[in-house]
Amino acid sequence: MRISELSRQSGVSPATIKYYAREHLLPEGDRTGYNQTEYGDDHVARLRLIRALIDTGGLSVADTHRVLAAIDDPQLPLDSTLGIAQQVIPKGATPPSDAALARVHEVMVERGWRVYPENPGIAQAASVLDGYAQIGRDDLGAAITRYAEAADLIADADLRLVADSGSRDRMAETVVVGTVLGDALIAGLRRIAQENASHNRFGAPPPPEQKETRS
Prior knowledge:
About 65% of the residues lie in helices and about 5% in strands. By secondary structure, it is mostly helical.
């Protein structure tokens, strides 16, 4: 297909497609003549992946390039791919306190987690505990042990999806997409579950019954 058709199918403008190609996010198409390039379905899929990482995942172009390079490298272990995906997720600029870091490490020991010291989740979780402390709500941090239990269930679901993905390329893509976009999915499901728990705990009138939708 020509770039106009690629743009139509992917929803990405021709100028942006050319930009992604220059930045090596998108593989070059096949040159078929002077100023003419042909693209295939793999280019459509890659563009949709790029837009998902940037629009939904909130990644910069540079970080998107980094995780795509990890997906495309057949020699890179999946553990390393996961580490790269975790590192590019936006994080706070203020380093957490030693006390908050110590509490997170306590939870890690309680759960028996084996984690590299540079795992970005450690500082991220500790920063949240610091945020609670700054507003005088250390009591909220007490829920960290229950959140850790839930995190184990989520992580197991994540890695089951990776294992069931098939080829190495597909597994690597699952690692990246599941990590970067999975945070948004979990946040969305949490909002839904919170409302349901609120209705059950506080006796609020339930919403209308959900009707099954059919295509």
